[in-house]
């Protein structure tokens, strides 16, 4: 089989997806074309629909089909609490925890000089304006506990604390359900220092 | 974030792909919408293009943009050798080996009574007509070495041998580059029995 052009194009397009290598792309392409034509049409339509409808929420930057997302427009959330996350995926994770009842600010990234991402790319000016608008009483930093996430949290703290905004950070420690023996030393050390 | 409808639709559409679970689907969806809008459009177009253009080759059943695929219409292939494979993917694997110069017949499946796939679903009548057309001198069975592939090979053999068609099967044995210690017992036993 000299692979037909349209089939090769499909494989190449699938290889762009994160976590999909050449073999998986070929397998998916065959599956779509041979057995799942309806699903394939559905996927193409879903991609087009998402690209057309999704924009950034004007308040928190998260993905939204409306100018202000449903969470930002909810009356049931506490506007005095503002949680800063890196991505909409992190926001979903926090929402699933059910532990947070305030509003969010989604950076849509993290400070990473090597990737050319500085304070301007992650909307920090907008965040400062929002945090100092008089409504927000506490900013909770929920950036990742990676080097880049920690740097981002540090920069935000440096920007907000001089303005008198209360800034907190998610607790670090031993994950629930884990056995001490298998927890890395840095996490254990942190848990000892921050014991309560 | 109450997930926007168009985003949820995209995640659900991605979950249909083989090997893509809920978390991978979410990650891919965010990646497409946030960072890879051009690739996302390309993927939607590639799916539509493939569905529109690809059909079955009238001679060998493989995916083709033309009524007869380029391999079946090639003058450089030996029409006396007919290799029977289960899927176009198997055909690609054989072509990549560079060891076969004849033509193919792609079953587009395998006999699997539990899945309701019998001889009629894998074009066996068409195969018999083709194999007995006077041009084909040898039919090489390259169905998989699974139970279903072996049953399929057996059924085809039973159909063709009474008609005087020479039928052969790919050799079974120890894979090149493998260490005996790690090869399963059934394969080693086969390799001993079929030593040469």
What does this structure look like?
Two copies of one chain form a homodimer. A four-stranded parallel β-sheet of chain A has the order 4-3-5-6. A two-stranded antiparallel ribbon of chain A has the order 1-2. In chain A, strand 3, helix 4 (88-97) and strand 4 (102-106) form a beta-alpha-beta unit. Chain A starts with a helix and ends with a helix. Chain A folds into two domains: 5-53, Helicase, Ruva Protein, domain 3 (Orthogonal Bundle), CATH 1.10.8.420; 79-169, Dna Topoisomerase Vi A Subunit, Chain: A, domain 2 (3-Layer(aba) Sandwich). The model of chain A has no long low-confidence stretch (mean pLDDT 91). Chain A is globular and about 65 Å long. Chain A has helices at 5-15, 22-35, 37-53, 88-97, 124-131, 147-160, 185-193; strands at residues 55-56, 63-64, 78-85, 102-106, 138-141, 166-169. Chain A is α/β, with parallel strands linked by helices and 196 residues long. Chains A and B meet through helix 1, helix 2, helix 3, strand 2 and helix 4 of A and helix 1, helix 2, helix 3, strand 2 and helix 4 of B.
């Amino acid at each position: 089989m000299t692979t037909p052009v349209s089939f090769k194009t499909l494989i190449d397009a699938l290889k762009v997806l994160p976590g999909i290598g050449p073999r998986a792309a070929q397998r998916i392409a065959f599956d779509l074309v041979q057995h799942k034509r309806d699903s394939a049409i559905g996927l193409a339509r879903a991609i087009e629909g998402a690209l057309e409808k999704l924009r950034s929420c004007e308040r928190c930057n998260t993905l939204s089909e409306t100018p202000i997302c449903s969470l930002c427009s909810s009356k049931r959330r506490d506007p005095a609490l503002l949680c800063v996350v890196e991505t909409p995926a992190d926001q979903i994770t926090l929402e699933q925890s059910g532990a947070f009842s305030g509003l969010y600010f989604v950076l849509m990234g993290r400070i990473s000089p090597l990737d050319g991402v500085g304070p301007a790319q992650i909307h920090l000016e907008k965040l400062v304006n929002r945090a100092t608008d008089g409504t927000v009483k506490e900013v909770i930093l929920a950036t990742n506990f990676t080097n880049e996430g920690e740097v981002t949290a540090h920069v935000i703290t440096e920007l907000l604390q001089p303005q008198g905004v209360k800034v907190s950070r998610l607790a670090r420690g031993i994950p629930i359900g884990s056995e001490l023996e298998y927890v890395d030393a840095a996490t254990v050390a942190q848990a000892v220092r921050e014991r309560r």
